[in-house]
Amino acid sequence: MRARRSLEVVPPSDHQLALPLPSDLPQLTIEPEWKVQQRLWGHSFHPMCSYLASFPAALAHALIARYTRPGDVVLDPFSGRGTTPLQACAEGRIGVGNDLNPFAHILTAAKVDPPTRAEAKTRLAALRMAWTAGAAEWNGIAAAIAADPGSPDLLVPAAGSRPLDGAAGLSRFASFRADAFVPAEVTLAFHPRTLAQILFLRASLNPDDRADRFLLASLTGILHGKSATYLSAVMPNTFSMAPRYVRDFVARTDFHSPERDAFTLLDDKLRRLYRQAPPATRGIALLGDARDSGVRFRESLRARGLPEKARLVVTSPPYLRVVKYGYYNWLRLWLLGYDASAIDDLLDDAHHRDAYLIFMREVLSGLRSALADDAVIALVIGDVELDRGRPANGGVGLAEAVWEYAAAPEGYRLAGIALDDVAAGRKMTKIWGDEAGQATKLDRILVLATSEAGRRRAVSGASLPIDWTWPQRLPRAL
Ligand SMILES: C[S@@+](CC[C@H](N)C(=O)[O-])C[C@H]1O[C@@H](n2cnc3c(N)ncnc32)[C@H](O)[C@@H]1O
């Protein structure tokens, strides 16, 4: 059980919250050029795996370029798939991300602390050879599982269990640790020979090893989707269809996922990811609660001999009751060895407004110790008009409420609110259908500072023109 500080938040009335902009809070005009950039603008590692409610790398750039210089520290306490820290590292800043979701942590860590292209390719080649040596056994167990989907008697080596002596055969893994059966909906999602390769990779890859973690994160990105670049065709790549839906769909349509070679597709994925060289600056990825991320950010920076205080925070806190990061990623979480419902119990994505404001106040309080005297903090906060299909209570004007009831009481200064009316059609929340596609209609960027100097920096920097050339031509060291 995590300790929660009790903070007093006197919630505003719904009438106040329903006030549309222009409110009496200052508006900050940041030219929204990030909206006109190409969909894949930014470093080629960004699209490693889709992630619900992620923001574009171009948005991170709009703030990083204006408010930091090379060598500065940029933080994101809710890093998701690692957009902010990766883009920061790619621009010569020290990008530090934190997330409580282990799936988000693996994606962020893979991007900010990647292996070289050669290391990734060499490891994949070694895995392919080990697979070849043990393929008959793995194919045998996968065929037995496919013949009796969901059978609790057919155990497989757990995720990350790894053979003690580096050997490939299933028995080597099994004698080490065999304690998991494969749920029926997982079995039904793949061709048996593809499933065999996935079981082998799942057991072999070590998430604490740099090259393995990169391969594992890349594997989550090709696990399911509607083209031949994905390992299962049963669902789109944006999110996992419900397990029951998968079972019913397969039974109703007699669906059989086509055979796909995991090693070939992973190799193709690596080629796409390494279209650009990895960022020259190495970042940091932390796993934990945003409420105490400030202390952990400082400790991790100190341990690396880096500046301990950040000049910029770019983050989007979890939306009010819009995304269940566990449930909508259950197949990827199975690959990583996590239980999706346990992840949803852990995360702060199901709060109603008042609890959310208390949560945000605790986050801003906890962050303070890791921020420089003139730090700028950009919080991307979506208005939520619908709460799982019904009108949301207090979801509109949320950014204003976060300022009034979470940031101001913690002594932050307000630079202003910038609007980002993301076209509804491009939002990931579209997956809930047209009506729910409007769940977060308008993003507002609440721009805060730790001091008057920071506030002025935020206001004057907002109108600075910035370079949108990508890849950037960074000056070379002599
Ligand atoms: C809107 S997403 C961030 C997306 C990110 N900006 C990106 O581009 O990928 C919010 C994130 O908050 C995380 N989260 C939820 N509760 C948390 C908590 N208490 N501490 C840290 N992270 C949390 C979720 O796992 C999710 O990744």
Brief rundown of the structure:
By secondary structure, the protein is an alpha/beta fold. The protein has helices at 14-17, 57-67, 83-90, 102-112, 117-147, 170-176, 184-189, 192-204, 210-221, 243-253, 262-273, 293-303, 330-336, 340-346, 353-367, 398-407, 433-436, 452-462; strands at residues 73-76, 94-99, 155-157, 178-181, 284-287, 310-315, 371-384, 386-387, 390-391, 413-420, 440-449. Strands 5-2-1-6-7-11-10 form a seven-stranded mixed β-sheet, sandwiched between helices.
Structural class: alpha/beta
Helical stretch count? 18
CA gyration radius, whole angstroms = 23 Å
What count of domains describes the coordinates? 2
What is the CATH architecture descriptor of the largest domain?
A: 3-Layer(aba) Sandwich
The chain-level mean pLDDT equals 87
Main sheet attributes: strand count, strand direction, barrel closure: 7 strands, mixed
| Total beta strands | 11
Helix content bin:
25-40%
Q: How large is the share of residues in beta strands?
A: 5-15%
Order of helices and strands: HHEHEHHEHEHHHHHEHEHHHEEEHEHEH
Distance between the termini: 52 Å
Q: Which blocks of ≥5 consecutive residues have pLDDT under 50?
A: 1-22, 422-439
Strand order in the sheet with the most strands: 5-2-1-6-7-11-10
**Would you tell me which CATH topology of the largest domain applies?**
Rossmann fold
Bound molecules: S-adenosylmethionine
The H-level CATH homologous superfamily of the largest domain, spelled out, is Vaccinia Virus protein VP39
The level-1 CATH class of the largest domain: Alpha Beta
Based on Cα principal axes, name the global outline: globular
